[in-house]
Amino acid sequence: MQVSENQVVSIDYTLKNDQGEVLDSSAEGEPLAYLHGHHNVISGLENALTGKSVGDTFTVTIPPEEAYGIRDESMTQTVPRHLFQGVDEIVPGMKFHAEAEHGVNVVTVLAVEGDQVHLDANHELAGQTLHFDVTIRDIRPATEDEITHGHAHGPDGHHAH
Hints:
Layout: E1 7-16, E2 22-25, E3 32-35, H1 43-49, E4 57-62, E5 76-80, E6 95-100, E7 103-113, E8 116-120, E9 130-141, H2 144-149
Antiparallel strand pairs: 1-2, 1-3, 1-9, 4-9, 5-8, 6-7, 7-8
C-alpha cells in the first residue's frame, strides 16, 4: 500500500533546522498519525510522503514556502501593557493566545519597553528551512468518519475518549 489521499499514515520523524538542531521528534512517544491529503501536515512533508510505502526511510528538506511560510513583518505589532491584565511579568519569548480574524493566533513577546509590548504573530518556524528524517510505520485506509472530519482519530479509526 502506498501513501495516497484518504490514507491514515503513521510516521516516526525528527525535525531539524538548518543548524542541525532538533526542533521536534516523535522518538519519545507514539508515531504521528495523520490523514493524508487533508492538510494535516505542512504541504512540503505531505508531498514528500506521497507514493511512499511502509518501511521507507528518507530525509526531506522543505523550504519556508512549503512549511510555515515566509516571515511577515506586518505580523509584528506593539500593544500597550494594560492589555495583559493579570500577568505580573512579561518577558521576551513568552507566548500568548490572541483572538484573530480567523480564530486564535499564538503571539510571541519580542521585547518589552516601558508600558509597550512588542509582539510577533508569525509562526515560530516561519522563514525557516526544515529538515525531516522520516520513517513510515503504518498506512491504513481512513474510515468514513475520519474523511468527513478531515483528520485521523485513533489507531482503529475511532475517536479517542
